[in-house]
Amino acid sequence: MMTVARISGPRCRSTRLSSRAGQGRGPGHYDCRRVTASRGTQNGKEAQPPAAPTMQSIKCVVVGDGAVGKTCLLICYTTNAFPKEYIPTVFDNYSAQSAVDGRTVNLNLWDTAGQEEYDRLRTLSYPQTNVFVICFSIASPPSYENVRHKWHPEVCHHCPDVPILLVGTKKDLRAQPDTLRRLKEQGQAPITPQQGQALAKQIHAVRYLECSALQQDGVKEVFAEAVRAVLNPTPVKRGRSCVLL
């Protein structure tokens, strides 16, 4: 069960992010954390029952190379429809009430731009993040490599204690003839599930998942697991793999 509201303005307004977002525990280190359900205040009168607890909010930020399918993944999840055209994202924000394992949470979904020219703007969306979803395209080996060389170091540098999900997008292209032909001409091949699992283990992601927004396959599972990563946290062990490359 899920209700959705898009809470951002037009993409052209995305540069209005507050410059105070970078304040934290040091240069480039933001206040990223797991949250716990907050409780409503009691009236104080013995004759009245305590106030109902407020709904827990979870901030989920989706990152990865440009054109790997981050926006399609979010639109498919929130509208059950696949967008017909590609519109590069600068910054976008969605809100959805999602029920996972009998608990309903307010899931705030943050879409980000993967292009290099937005590197400084993108990190302004990281404060208060509860879970990251790092995406790569199964049909794009360079986007897979950039998880190791760019995306994991970036989120680990700014938010070292926040859980990460690793997601391989465009699962439908793994066996698509045109994709196989194009990659073969470049001496490449689609990323295998085993490669995805190996990378997830290397970056200490809580899970590795694959999905296809086009076929609406595995989309809901991605965000259900993102919620579980916050509601049922496991220790985050990053070690030396967090060093910026």
TrEMBL record:
<dbReference type="Pfam" id="PF00071">
    <property type="entry name" value="Ras"/>
</dbReference>
<dbReference type="InterPro" id="IPR001806">
    <property type="entry name" value="Small_GTPase"/>
</dbReference>
<dbReference type="GO" id="GO:0007264">
    <property type="term" value="P:small GTPase-mediated signal transduction"/>
</dbReference>
<feature type="region of interest" description="Disordered">
    <location>
        <begin position="1"/>
        <end position="34"/>
    </location>
</feature>
<dbReference type="InterPro" id="IPR042734">
    <property type="entry name" value="RhoG"/>
</dbReference>
<keyword id="KW-0547">Nucleotide-binding</keyword>
<dbReference type="GO" id="GO:0003924">
    <property type="term" value="F:GTPase activity"/>
</dbReference>
<protein>
    <recommendedName>
        <fullName>Rho-related GTP-binding protein RhoG</fullName>
    </recommendedName>
</protein>
<dbReference type="GO" id="GO:0005525">
    <property type="term" value="F:GTP binding"/>
</dbReference>
<dbReference type="InterPro" id="IPR005225">
    <property type="entry name" value="Small_GTP-bd"/>
</dbReference>
<dbReference type="InterPro" id="IPR027417">
    <property type="entry name" value="P-loop_NTPase"/>
</dbReference>
<dbReference type="InterPro" id="IPR003578">
    <property type="entry name" value="Small_GTPase_Rho"/>
</dbReference>
<comment type="subunit">
    <text>Interacts with ARHGEF26. Interacts with ARHGEF16. Interacts with UNC13D; the interaction increases RhoG affinity to the membrane lipids, targets UNC13D to membrane lipids and facilitates cytotoxic granule (CG) docking to the plasma membrane.</text>
</comment>
<comment type="function">
    <text>Plays a role in immunological synaptic F-actin density and architecture organization. Regulates actin reorganization in lymphocytes, possibly through the modulation of Rac1 activity. Required for the formation of membrane ruffles during macropinocytosis. Plays a role in cell migration and is required for the formation of cup-like structures during trans-endothelial migration of leukocytes. Binds phospholipids in an activation-dependent manner; thereby acting as an anchor for other proteins to the plasma membrane (PM).</text>
</comment>
<keyword id="KW-0342">GTP-binding</keyword>
